User: What shape does this take?
Amino acid sequence: MLLILLGVLVFHLVVLILLIVSTASSTWSVDAAGHTDLWYNCHSDPKGYKCLQASSEDWIQAVQALMILSVVFCFTSLIAFLYQLFRLVKGGHFYFTSIFQILASVFVMCGAIIYTVMRPDSDKDYGYAYVLAWVAFPLSLISGLSYLILRKKD
Assistant: This one.
């Protein structure tokens, strides 16, 4: 049982790291001239490399908020898991942890979908941070569903 709990904890930490990197990283869209992320649009020209603030349109602010919420909910579910690990009665389920982790997966999915549909530069390629966000979605969903199944057997 200890190995299962340790595996679930490590899996949860991997998901949290993926979410943090995809939210904070600077390559959601890339092309030869530069890259775009949730916070800045950077490009190179003959005068040098310049970064400007991301647009203040509603859709990019929604993606920013959803990605931050996914990180917060994933971290909250990690803290809840650690708390429930020591306070939950024998045979109890990790429902609270599961709900927060599933909500984190829904937030990252919604943020990635909005970015996919609304990004203005369709000629740019998707960057690794965008891919990490999509990878974090099913992993956090699997993590949340595993907390639904998991029971404390101590």
